[in-house]
Amino acid sequence: MHPVSSVLYRINKLELHNMQKNWLSLWIILVGAFVAVIGSAGAVYAQANADWTEPFPPFKIAGNLYYVGSKGLANYLITTPEGHILINSDLEENVSLIRASIESLGFKFTDIKILLISHAHWDHNAASDTIKKLTGAKYMVMEADVSVVESGGKTDFQYGNVPAARYTPTKVDRVLHDGDEVRLGGAVLVAHLTPGHTKGCTTWTMKAQEAGQTYNVVIIGSPNVNPGYRLVNNAAYPTIAADYEKMFRVLKSLPCDIFLGAHGGYFDLETKYARLKKSGLAAFVDPEGYKKFVTDKEQAFKTELAKQRSAPGK
Ligand SMILES: [Zn+2]
After folding, report:
1. How far apart, in whole angstroms, are the C-alpha atoms of residue 204 and residue 145?
2. Burial class, 15, CB count within 10 angstroms (exposed 0-12 / middle 13-18 / buried 19+)
3. For residue 222, how far is its CA from the centre of ligand 1 (angstroms)?
4. How close is the Cα of 277 to the center of ligand 1, in Å?
5. CB-count burial class (<10 Å; 0-12, 13-18, 19+) for 57
6. Among 33, 157, 165, 302, which lies 20 to 30 A Cα-Cα from 130?
7. Apex CA 225: angle with CA 272 and CA 256, to 5°?
8. What is the model's pLDDT at position 36?
9. What is the CA(28)–ligand 1 centre distance, in A?
10. 189 forms bridges with which residues in the sheet?
């Protein structure tokens, strides 16, 4: 999920500055901001994340690894002679986009044998039940996210009571643990438990072969501390801060050539895709970008943790 409140805050701050002498305008802005904040979570998220359902051209990243996601929600297809692995199912509205992307690359949507997710949030897993029914794929999820997935989001520590964050409860066929391998037709993906954003947030790694070279691929689950997340005194997730710390340790330990993630924004999908035609795979080989992203996100986490520790009740 993308932070929404910070955007609203910035917009309102700017407007307040320009109109501080006009009290009528100020009053209107405050009412507008209030309505925006208390308005249904679904409407706010949908407005702020129009790119989630915006089509994006599918393309080969390297070897048997393809991008088949939308502009804002990333999906990856790993093809093999024995069928395919799909990472993330996204929202129900995304299924037809994912299908069209897979078919335009010349593969069959119904050949998806295994469905994986980045983490148990609706923007990455709401359509899992639909995709399972359409393809017969086996759904494999990290243990700590299984109850959230099978309850349709109800047991999520943060969004369990948010109607817009709910989806069709989906049966998990294989429960994954940290370090487990998912194998199909010669492809091997490794599931790394990178918790905090969700309890079972998963970073996937694999090796991609291209032109005689082997590349380490890292698909980050999510390092973000969402607006409203309590890092201290969180009864619904007591180990949250220690889990984020573990996640950053894991991310920093992973060798990375090709840097990917659950949202295109993590790794600057649009810029890299624009460079792809000219530079080929080199556009996506970005070990320094990976390190910088992880370092920046760790700093953001540390800043937020320090803030909450100094004012734990707020
Ligand atoms: Zn999320």
Report:
1. 15
2. middle
3. 7
4. 31
5. exposed
6. 157
7. 40
8. 44
9. 32
10. 182
Q: How far is the CA of 242 from the centre of ligand 1 (A)?
A: 18
* pLDDT higher than 90, residue 30: no
Helical ranges in the chain per DSSP H: 5-18, 23-38, 41-48, 95-104, 122-125, 128-135, 143-150, 240-253, 264-267, 269-279, 287-310
pTM listed for this prediction: 0.86
Amino acid letter for position 203: T
In angstroms, rounded to a whole number, what is the distance separating the alpha carbons of residues 11 and 178? 41
Phi, psi values for residue 92, rounded to 5°: -55, -40
* Cα separation, 49 vs 3, whole angstroms: 10
CA of 197 from ligand 1 middle (Å) equals 6
Neighbours of ion ligand 1 (CB under 5 A): 1, 121, 222
- Residue 125 CA to ligand 1 centre (angstroms): 10
Tokens coding 296: 């920046």
pLDDT tens per residue across span 118-161: 999 999 999 999 999 999 999 999 999 999 999 999 999 999 99
- State phi, psi for 59 to the nearest 5 degrees: -160, 160
- CATH class assigned to 56-310: alpha beta
3, HSE (Cβ side, Cα atoms, 13 Å) = 16
Annotated domain spans of the chain? 56-310
**205 exposed, middle or buried (CB, 10 Å; 0-12, 13-18, 19+)?**
middle
- SS in 3 state form for 298-313? HHHHHHHHHHHHHCCC
Q: What is the CA radius of gyration of the chain?
A: 20
pLDDT tens-digit map of 101-128 = 999 999 999 999 999 999 999 999 999 9
Q: How many CB atoms lie within 10 A of CB 162?
A: 15
